[in-house]
Amino acid sequence: MPVLTSPFAELDLIRQPDQPNEPLQAFDAADEYLLAYMAEHPLPAQARVLILNDSFGALAISLQGSVHLISSGDSFLGALGLEKNLTRNGLPFDSIEFVPASAPVQGPFDRVLVRVPKTLALLEEQLIRLHGHLAPGAEVVAAGMVKHLPHAAGDLLEKYIGTMRPSLAVKKARLLIATAEGKPAPISPYPTRYQLDEPRLMLLNHANVFCREGLDIGTRAFLPHLPRNLGAARVADLGCGNGVLAIVSALANPQASYTLVDESFMAVQSAQENWQAALGARQVEVRAGDGLAGQAPQSLDVVLCNPPFHQQQVVGDFLAWRMFQQTREALVTGGDLYIVGNRHLGYHSKLARLFRGVEQVAATPKFVVLRARK
Asked: Which PANTHER family does the record associate with it (predicted)?
């Protein structure tokens, strides 16, 4: 596995979740560019630096000890990667403060380093939240690989921070550097809300929630075919997003108990708020997690899932396959996994390798709803 070498440290880093023969490394040229910038424009040891969206700790662990650091992001797997990589490199797992993107950070910060996320709404909300937390003349330095760095990222820096200057591209990476100009307090457009007609629900969505502006078409295909008559079943919504699957299911199954899990802290925050709005004080467990990795074996009767097919810019079915494996461990014998997926992903054959029975519950021209029985 390649070692991240910078003016600050040499680090052995791994991605999360663990994958045998991992084909991708836990850092890229944009991380290296940010670290080179920090070396060329040093700050005093007492300076306060905020790092946003540091995938697996490459930036924070490299800079550990050179400045006062806080790391913040919306990925549970990113936070887990930070802990594991600290330990892997001989440092205490809790030696860098991590703040979930669903919680505020407290400045003032002398510099902010940003890995531009795939979802620009998340970047916008993060920049908005910096208002009042930047020291005079503080720099916000955003980075990304050129192919993943939209022009709109620079526009957001100009809008919320100050005049932006792009760097030259180095190893297909670029920096966008903005200096704080004391702009007036912005009004955040987040969270957004949309109305579900059947059942009638108003759903709130924080900035990094998938399909924030309206119900995604996969979930729309899934909702009419959610299982009914579940009695006192123990149900999990795996990759819950804003919680819509669990909430609609819970309304139809008043005796069932629910666990909602997502890798995004903002999704978990949205799901918690939506559950409370729709179901009041009805008991529920909502948590950020690595899928069902923390779930006790044979502790669930039903799992509902609209699986993801990407992790940031990396596309593939690795996360879905891992979710299916976790579900098999967590389900009781005779328990059911219900999923919706694009037809072309071929989930039926994948599920048949893990479960004793797989049937098609419903289909549209684009999606299939499947039930897999353990």
From this structure: RIBOSOMAL RNA LARGE SUBUNIT METHYLTRANSFERASE G, RIBOSOMAL RNA SMALL SUBUNIT METHYLTRANSFERASE C
- What is the rounded distance in angstroms from the CA atom of residue 92 to the CA atom of residue 272? 31
Distance CA 201, CA 223 (A): 13
Per-residue confidence (pLDDT) for residue 211, from 0 to 100: 86
- Contacts (Cβ under 8 Å, ≥6 apart) of 32: 4, 6, 171, 173
- How far apart are alpha carbons 208 and 264 in whole angstroms? 8
Sequence-distant (6+) residues with CB within 8 A of 171 are 29, 32, 33
Sorted by sequence, the CB contacts under 8 Å of residue 137 that are 6+ apart come out as: 179, 180
- Specify the pLDDT at position 309: 63
- What's the pLDDT at 315? 44
Task: Please name every residue paired with 357 in a beta bridge, in sequence order, or none if there are none.
Answer: 373
Pull the structure tokens for residue 243: 């919680």
State the pLDDT at residue 229. Answer: 96
What is the rounded CA–CA span in Å between residue 57 and residue 78?
7
Give Dmax over CA atoms of the chain in angstroms: 64
For the chain, which domains are there?
3-179 (3.40.50.150), 192-373 (3.40.50.150)
Tell how strand 68-73 and strand 48-52 pair up. parallel
- Smallest CA-to-CA distance from 224 within 238, 255, 245 is with 245
Tell me, what's the pLDDT at 298?
A: 97
State how far the Cα of 356 lies from the Cα of 30, in Å rounded to an integer: 45
Q: Are 82 and 71 in contact (CB under 8 A)?
A: yes
Q: Is 313 exposed, middle or buried (0-12, 13-18, 19+ CB in 10 A)?
A: exposed
